[in-house]
Design a protein that fits this description.
The chain is mainly alpha-helical and 550 residues long. The protein has helices at residues 9-13, 22-41, 54-67, 77-82, 103-115, 119-145, 148-159, 162-167, 174-206, 221-234, 241-261, 267-274, 276-293, 296-300, 302-309, 345-367, 424-444, 447-458, 461-464, 480-495, 503-530, 537-541, and strands spanning 71-73, 90-95, 315-318, 324-327, 391-399, 414-420, 534-536.
Length: 550
Amino acid sequence: MTTPRLPSVKERFRPLARLEDPLIGWLATLSVTALAFFLRVWKLGTPREFEFDETYYAKDAWSMLNHGYARNYVDDANDQVLAGTTHGIWDGDAPSMIVHPPVGKWMIALGEKAFGMDPYGWRIASAVVGALMILLMCRLVRRLTGSTLLGCVAGLLLCLDGMHLVLSRLALLDIFLAFWILAAVTALVADRDWTRERMVRMVEERGRSGWGPLKGMWFRPWRLVAGICFGLAIGTKWSALYPLAVFGILVWLWDAGARRALGVRGARLKSALVDGVPAFVHLVLVAFVVYVASWTGFLVHADRYEEAFSSSQYTRFVSMDDKCKETTDDSKKWSTADEPDAHGLGELTQSLRSLAWYHHDVYVFHTNFLNCSTHTYESDPAGWLVLNRPVGVNVENDIKPGDQGCTAAAGSSCLRQVILLGTPVLWWAGAVALIWALIAWVGKRDWRYGFALAGALSLWLPWELNDERPIFSFYASAAMPFIIVALTLALGEILGRERGPSRRRTIGTIITGSFVILVLLNFAWFWPIWTNGLLTRSEWLDRIWFQRWI
C-alpha cells in the first residue's frame, strides 16, 4: 500500500477559486444577483408610508442631502412628505441629535437624490446594497471552497432569507452595516490568497530566511480595501468595531500560519512585528481616517452643534427603589462651547474636539439613557439565532371583506403586514451549523470554519453582554452571512468532494438539494408577511407559528 503524497506548500497555498472556470463563475453569480435584485425591488414603494425607523433615517438623509447635516422637522413632516411636499418641513436650522454615524444615511440619500423623497427613493439604496451582498456572498464562498456551485448556493440562501429581504426593502441602517462588513471580510480572504501566493513566489525566487518573505509584503492592496470598508461599516453603526477587532487578530494568525508553513521558527512572534504592525495601519488606522472623514458634515457645521448640544447631556441612573430618574450633568459641558470661533487649522482642531464631545454624548445615550427604556419588540439576544422575537415593521388591520380584494368570510377581516423575521428553516439550520463549525474548527483545524464562527460571534455575542437596553432581533442580520458560510461549508461536507457520479455523491446531492428546496418553499410561504401582502386573518395565523411572533 502506497502512502499518499502530501501536497507541497505551493499546492496548499494555491487559491481554491482557480479550480473553477471564471466565466461560468461570474455568469452564475450574476444570475443569482439578478434574482435577488428583482425580489428586492418588486413593489418597493409599498406600503407608501414611513415604516418603523424610516421616519428617522429617511428624513435625516434628506436633510443631509439638502443641508449637509440632519435638521429637526416640523411635527407634520411625515404627512407633508407623503403628500409630495418637501418644502417648509424643517423646524429651523438647528441640528437634530442623531445617535448613529452618518454613512448609512448618506447611502440612503443617494437613492433620494436619484429618485426623489418618496418610499421608493429612500428604499432603493437598501435594495441595491442587499443585491450586492448576494454577489459578494457568491464570490466569497466560491473563494473559500473552490466551488462555483457552493458559492451560488450560499448566495441563494442569503437571497432567500426573509430578514435580509425585508431589510433590503427598508431605509434602515442594518443592511448597510452588513454590506460593509461582508465587503471587508471578503477583501481579507482575497488578501489571504494574495499573500500566500506572493510568499511562495518570493521563497522560490530568493530562498528561505529566518523571518520569511519581507520585501514587498508591507503594502497589501486588499487589506487597504478592507480597512476602508471597515471604516464605512463603523461609520454606519459602531457595532462594526467588534468584527474589526476579531478579524484584526485573525489575519495576524493567518500570516503567522503561512510563515510557519514556510519553515519560519517562532512565526507568531515574528509575524506580530512584520505583519501585525502593517495590518494595524491598513485596518485600524485607515478605518479611523475613513470614519472621521464620514463626519465631514458635522465638522463643516460644528458651530451649530456646539450651540445646540454643548450643554445637553444624556444621563440616567437607577435609584434605590429601582425607579429610573433622568438627570442632566452640566459639569461635562463641551470645552469648545465658550471658545471663540477659530480659523484655519485651528478651526479644524476645534471642530474635531467638538466631534469628540458629541461622541461622548452619543455613547452616554446608548449606554445609559436607553437603559430604562422599553419597547414592544425588544428581545433577548440569546434567542436571536432561533428567531425568538421578530419585529413588526408595519401593519394594516381590519380590512373589510371586499376592500382591496379581501376574500375573508363575513364577520372576519384581512390584514397586511411587514415583519422582520428570518426564514425559519434557514436560521434554525444555521444555528446548528455554528455548533458544527466549532467542532470542525477545533477537530479538523479548518480555518474556514473559524472564519465563519469568528464573524458570527463577533456580531452576536457583544449584544448578549450588553442587553440592558431595548435591542432587537434584526441586529443579528449582520451575522447572517457568516452563519450561511458555516451552513454552506457543512452542506459541502454532505455533498462530498467527488466530482464524478458515485453513490456518495448522489446521496449528498439529494440531501443538499432537498435542503435548498425546503428553504425555497419556506421562503415562498412567508413571502406575504415580508412584502405587505394581503392575507385573511386565518392565512396570517398560519404563518405566525409561535405566540411570541405576534
